């Protein structure tokens, strides 16, 4: 296996993320003795870390396009080491101040590295592997979160054992920089056909101009509601979880993105048709999620025996007991479908962006904006939920309005999906002075056939075929 092949480099990135993101999600709840119901479901409740995620995701566009991916992942591994070290300090000094500061630093590194990861996963695989590669990398996060939740729920060990867990976390974190060192510059990645990735040179001035231009692009404008609205709805309507087991069920629902990845990649029809059918699948799962959530909210808040004079803990214990007695099955279904549709919407959005361009710089602009707006939507949703004047009553109006807006965002996204072609023509159109007809689809020698949407630099492609 060649060092500069896409498969080798994707494997190295995966190892780096397993040693950082996956291990952190596995052990964080256990080390801090936080059960899943005390944590958020994918978006930040905390104002500071939310702002850091939103801003750093957007800044990630500039960083990813101006700095080699190797250095970005090295920086992330170092922030992860700082975060892992904060747990050691916390146990030794019995103070969480350092841990909170380290979490903010790590959030900055994580957000930038996630933009870099998604850009790599969109650009490196061949066209028939894009969605499945996306699914695998998303599952690295989803599955490790689910297993981490199970560990946190089932292992309330002594402080000494959790301290040992912190040391294990630190050890894995210290190995990660060595894996990141093997990540090659994106301009050196070459497919078996001899075709290089499209990595045009850029500078800060050009990036500012291009990003401003993105917001004037009709396809980006049509995708912005898709990026924003569902996370916002998810934040205030789809997170009413009274039980830690439901949190785990939510995480495992997300793992099913692999099935959508299979459907989008298997070439049973053209990419546009697969995109339209994929959106229909997301739409159907969303309807199932909406229906079960609407039903669960009725049961969740049907507490006729609730005494207002009780303390908060008494009221909460009573509500959880009533929910478990009355409607645990419907709430379990609502939780599972909510996790499933949130994962499908994220995967599908990134896949659509991957069909529009193979240019790494353009992909970074798409992904950075998507990640930032998605985090903003989740933050707004949670703030709406947190500032609900009476949390014991359902937010039915918000649920129905948010769901209607989500359906509108799907309709707007459909206009973009209908623009999908068999070539990622946004990048092909940038090949100066040549039409796509000049590029041979079949190689002139014994190399395997090349998908025209994989063609990157025209001059390098012609050189490869001339050999």
From TrEMBL:
The keyword Transmembrane applies. Keywords: Membrane, Transmembrane, Transmembrane helix. The chain crosses the membrane at residues 7-27, 47-66, 73-92, 104-124, 131-151, 163-184, 219-239, 245-264, 276-299, 319-345, 366-385, 397-417. Signal peptide: none annotated. InterPro entries: MFS_trans_sf (IPR036259). This is Uncharacterized protein. The lineage of its organism: Eukaryota, Fungi, Fungi incertae sedis, Zoopagomycota, Kickxellomycotina.
